[in-house]
Design brief:
Elements (H helix, E strand, L loop, with lengths): L22 H4 L4 H38 L2 E3 L5 E3 L3 H7 L2 H34 L4 H13 L2 H11 L6 H8 L14 H12 L1 H13 L3 H9 L4 H12 L1 H15 L4 H7 L10 H11 L3 H32 L1
Antiparallel strand pairs: 1-2
Helix pairs in contact: 2-15, 3-15, 4-8, 4-9, 4-12, 4-14, 5-9, 6-13, 8-13, 12-15, 14-15
Length: 323
């Protein structure tokens, strides 16, 4: 008669005299996350300071501005809740319409000039065979000049009496212009300043996109008899359309917040032709002492820019998924 054999043990018995496994090694389930936490604690310690500073100087003012937009606020004495009264008052202000009209016109002109000039400059730099690095530095130099200093230089440049712009026109026996002092030319003059100041960064991005285009595409286009303009139209622009779209969205977001140029060069004039939304926010807060109105206008601008930012993030995310 056969007896039932015992099932084999799941683990072989430890040999006699073998050292016992350390207690920490026997706690396998809790080891990974504790180890990761210990490894990352230093990184979190460095991050928490930056997050707190960002929350203090960015998130808190933004949230506080939204609250003040619904209050009759006086610094030092708190605020009284007034609902949407600030929005209604600002919306019916004649300066509100003028500021938005000027801002949208500035944005449209900046898109037309601010796209064409950097793109053409990048095309020229991409075709250079000698001194390419030197011209890149020259193009990027305006970005390194502080915005206020740049605006002061252009204010002198546009001076109708002794400015370099009119002096050059007189030397060439051409009619002079009022530039930033003229009601019809002031906004265009500011667009030129903004385009010049931001030219370098945009050109470098376009240049990087152009250099990523495979040379075989241009060679195939040349074999098909395409001239320079046809190569740009059928090869360059399609290959860089995503970068173009992204930069145009970023340019819309940036130009709708223009402040330095009208503040320093024109002071909002002449005849309020260069009063932008951000400049009107400044006037409400620091000239009219109406912080509720300033915050209400800021919230309106925030909502609009958030919509453009959402489109930008959606496009970049979809492009990343396609890649």
């Amino acid at each position: 008669m056969k007896t039932a054999s015992k099932p084999p043990a799941a683990f072989p018995p430890a040999a006699a005299g073998a050292p016992e496994a350390p207690r920490s090694a026997r706690r396998r389930p809790g080891t990974p996350w504790r180890r990761r936490l210990a490894d990352q604690s230093r990184a979190y310690a460095f991050l928490i300071g930056g997050v707190l500073c960002f929350a203090l100087f960015s998130w808190y003012p933004a949230i506080r501005a939204v609250v003040i937009a619904f209050q009759k606020y006086t610094p030092g004495s708190g605020g009284e809740w007034v609902g949407t009264a600030n929005f209604t008052r600002v919306f019916h202000d004649p300066e509100f319409t003028a500021a938005w009209r000027n801002t949208l016109t500035f944005t449209l002109l900046a898109l037309l000039i601010g796209f064409a000039v950097p793109f053409v400059t990048a095309l020229v730099l991409n075709e250079l065979r000698h001194a390419k690095a030197f011209f890149r530095v020259v193009v990027y130099l305006p970005v390194m000049i502080p915005p206020v200093v740049s605006a002061l230089l252009w204010k002198w440049f546009y001076d109708p009496g002794a400015g370099l712009a009119n002096e050059t026109l007189r030397f060439l026996h051409l009619p002079t212009s009022n530039w930033s002092n003229g009601a019809d030319t002031a906004l265009v003059s500011l667009v030129i300043v903004a385009t010049w100041a931001n030219l370098g960064g945009t050109v470098l991005i376009y240049l990087a996109a152009l250099q990523s285009i495979p040379g075989e595409l241009y060679e195939a286009a040349e074999l098909d008899g395409a001239n320079l303009l046809q190569r740009i139209r059928h090869v360059t622009i399609p290959q860089t359309r995503f970068i173009i779209l992204m930069l145009m969205l970023l340019q819309i977001i940036a130009t709708m917040q223009v402040f330095t140029e009208p503040f320093v060069i024109t002071g909002g004039g002449p005849e309020d032709k260069t009063v932008t939304v951000l400049y009107l926010i400044y006037k409400y807060a620091f000239l009219y002492n109406d912080f509720g109105g300033a915050c209400a206008l800021s919230v309106m601008l925030l909502v609009l820019l958030s919509a453009f930012s959402a489109v930008y993030l959606r496009l970049t995310r979809s492009e990343g998924d396609d890649a």
